[in-house]
Specification:
Layout (H helix, E strand, L loop, with lengths): L4 E4 L6 E8 L5 E6 L5 E5 L15 E2 L17 E2 L18 H8 L17 E5 L3 E3 L6
Parallel strand pairs: 3-5, 4-8
Antiparallel strand pairs: 1-2, 2-7, 3-4, 3-6
Length: 139
């Protein structure tokens, strides 16, 4: 069961639900849509990962894997350097500003855990349940 928490957009001030993914625990990589911020979760053990993608797990996808992913349903492209977006104003979220709500909601904060302050680390965010799994092109 996944645990959702509430975040706040640093641009429009609207709130949204999110869940934090530890990509090391599930041997995955991720990418965000450059247009809407939808997250693509890519299982490192998925049987149909194109070998040409040279997928690296435990963080954002490597840039050479981008061309092997299906486009987002919004028409955008999943990119290694994209970030999650506010579901209301569509602005990219600041990883630094996200620290306030991520650390406030994370149980590990009381024991010293701190947010990575980057969209390029071990953790990814799924906003308002907008995500896809293993959306590789069929070659």
């Amino acid at each position: 069961m996944r645990s959702t928490a509430t975040g706040t957009c640093d641009v429009c001030g609207q709130t949204f639900q999110y869940w934090l993914i530890h990509n090391g625990f599930n041997d995955s990589a991720y990418a965000y849509c450059d247009r809407c911020g939808c997250e693509a979760s890519l299982n490192g053990y998925y049987k149909d990962v194109p070998p040409q993608a040279h997928l690296k797990i435990h963080g954002p996808i490597n840039p050479e894997a981008e061309e092997f992913l299906q486009p987002c349903s919004c028409g955008g492209t999943f990119r290694a350097d994209a970030s999650p977006h506010c579901p209301h104003c569509k602005s990219p979220l600041s990883a630094e500003a996200a620290r306030s709500y991520i650390e406030a909601n994370a149980p590990g904060t009381a024991k010293g855990w701190r947010w990575q302050r980057s969209w390029k680390g071990l953790y990814s965010l799924i906003i308002e349940d907008r995500w896809v799994r293993d959306n590789w092109l069929r070659l």
